[in-house]
Specification:
heterodimer; A: alpha/beta; 8-stranded mixed β-sheet; 15 helices; B: 8-stranded mixed β-sheet; 18 strands
Amino acid sequence: MVTMQRIEVVRCGLALALVMALLPVMGASAQEQLAIKGGRIVPIVGEPIDDGVILIRDGTIQQIGTDLDIPIEARVIDATGMVILPGFVEPHSPEPLVQPNEVNPNVPFVTVVDAVDPNAIYFEEARRNGVTSVHAIPGNSTMFGGKSAVVKTSGTFAEDMVLKRDAGLKLSLRPSGSTSRMSHLARLRRELDETKRYMASLDEKAGKTNDEVSDDAKADEEKDEPQAAQEEDEEKADEEKADESSSDDTAPDAQREAMVRLLKGELPAFLYCEQAMDVPHALKLIDDYGLNATLILGRDCHKAVGLLAGRDDPVILDPELVFWETDPRTDEDEQIILPRLYREVGVPITFQTSGSSLSSATTLGPSLLWYQAATAVKYGMPVEEALEALTLRPARLIGVDSFVGSIEPGKDADLVIFSGEPLKLGTWVETTIIDGKIVYRREDDSRMRALLQPNENSSEKP
Amino acid sequence: MIPFVPLAPIVIALLVAASPIAAEEPEGRGLAVFAGKVITCAGDPIVDGTVLVRDGKIEAVGPRSEIEVPEGYEVIDCGDKFVMPGLVEVHCHIGGSGDLNEMVYQTNPDLRTLDQVIPHNEALKVGIAGGVTTVCYIPGSGTNMGGFGAILKAGPGSLEEVLVRFPGVLKIAQWGNPERRDGTLGSGRMGMNWIIRDQLEEGRQYVQAWDEYDAGRRAEPPEIDLRLENFKPLFRREIPVLVHTQGYQGIQATLEMLHDSMELKVVIGHGTFEGYLISEEIQKREIPVMAGPRGFRFDPDDGQIHGIVAEYSQRGIRFLGVNTDSPVIPQEDLAYQAAMAVRYGWNEEDAIRGITIEPAKALMIDDRVGSIEPGKDADLVICTGSILDPRNYVTQVMIEGRVIYDITKDRRRY
């Protein structure tokens, strides 16, 4: 069925494989099986395997090793001389969305799935550059911007591309519209406090329901409590409807459900800090409200790096990794190298390709992801860590590491075959595979044909 | 509230009894139309054909040599002219006073264009001169759910006489106009789709409750909510939702939400920009595309101009038509929309169907209009040749057996 949620498909994968094994007629289609042989496999988890074989069935990695029997029905990709990596994972991007932000700054209930454009040029570029999963998330211009989703970078319907729905909730500390930081932060806290009160009222209701309070008392309470709590809520229009549609009095209504889950720690927060001064506020919010949060740090935030020392949770860096700053008093120029600064205090880092206020980052597109890792290597990051920061680390960060991020049996067959050493300038993505399907081949890349002649030295060429 | 019942018998009875023009077709007396070519839109065209009309309905159609004209039938001999079914407009905003966007609420399922219909108004009269006999008069796209539209005949008569069906369609707007820029919810895809889904869900639950009651699975009747009443025929799939949707992402969301998830009868009401790229999925669901009013798109990828309708057609979509979004394109230019689509690569046979039977099927009124077949309404257009040739013009239009427009008596209007 077209609208089946991805995550269910993935979870059913193993069971399905079992069923398929029992039904040889059904499982016999050669399309379902794929083998990649001859290349150097970099599984991220464990040591690289030279001249390895990867067996794929029904979109899932079955086996990796050196001396594996390739089933006769499997389609074989010869990757001799090439390097195979798990598909890259972008931990934060509004690029898949038609429009990154709602104008209303307080829309925690909306979902990016409604705005993902499978036809967006971003996805084509992502496949071309080996990005197979992306955390599609609202932009930084809203206070509570909506629920994010992790999507694969290939598909016809947004729904079918979803790997994880409600992967997080976007919060931004950048003042929305013309408001000041004071009022922005005040309102943000007020919304969180109101949600807490709302949760308390639900708990109370649940308690009373258990004690079998009379229906009348319940009705009164319904009338009073949400009214008081929502005095300053801007989305009044839909409030009654949402209340009506909720069959269970003690379950949060549709508009508040995301906020309730946020405060219960079930929905991770992705918290954007534009400036260094936002970082301490972010940390305080996390502590005060017990948020399960990931920080998305603007360029300027490196000045607050000391506050982050000793934190194990990875952060998402601004796309602009290296830049110059001028001291306003001495006029002295200083080069700022973000990966180095964060690594020096022990903060694990991940990369993103958009979200900066600078146009240079967005114009470079998803190709920047590997380039950033290469830049980090230039400034001291070991290659192994850089590759992990493109794959497993962001996968863990956005809660999809049981499906993607490394080459291991049971995981989604999201693989990228590079023409040579990854992170090297002259290396190209030869083939991108998502869920066992080839979604990009360099030799078929008509848009880049002039640039990407795959057989430069071929004598067949005119 | 106008009940959801076929009004044809009443209409015919009234027409026959009252109107002065109806005197041209005295009770019991039929009409025979001879034409050089009869384009039936139900099979091959008939050269030298006859159409028999009686009591406002088509009685028979066939080659002149095979159809015997009964005694006493009035004869209209059109010579070598063409006869075709009256044109059907799926997307019309000129059926009434024109105030079609209530901008206060973002969803307005309680609103109905029925409340401001002006039958046979000046714009519709000119439309008739262009051959348009049936219009779906719908709310605008200023909000995500503008209300319910009414399907009307363009000819004279009271509201009840011209009404084909109410509720005709629900109008939903998903992309490119309903966006709110004032800071309320719904400035983009996320907010708008949340709003639409939320409202439909409310409607679905309401209808479900009634269906359960009607089926005896629920003891107490649900409380009547007039705001949600018109959702009943919608969720029972008796009427379609006409969706102002375009672009790949927009149509993708339309298919997923309105068809797959809400299980509604869907009509794609614009389908413009790069929307044709998702044709395969539209085709799988057998959803009609009533494209326009934009006829072409400049594709920055290949630097070419693409005909929007032709692109759908080349990708296998047969349930295909055009619209004028009148007054965006004047109502009388419906045939022009089809003609331009042909110029951009569509084929003429499909183009004729795309302004007659295909829109009639999309609106689920093809039991009454859209083709020349026995039993259907005698809505006939007589033209100096193919209506797709801009050099030709309409000389006579008949609605339910009455000649509404005749250039020899009326001034030629178009």
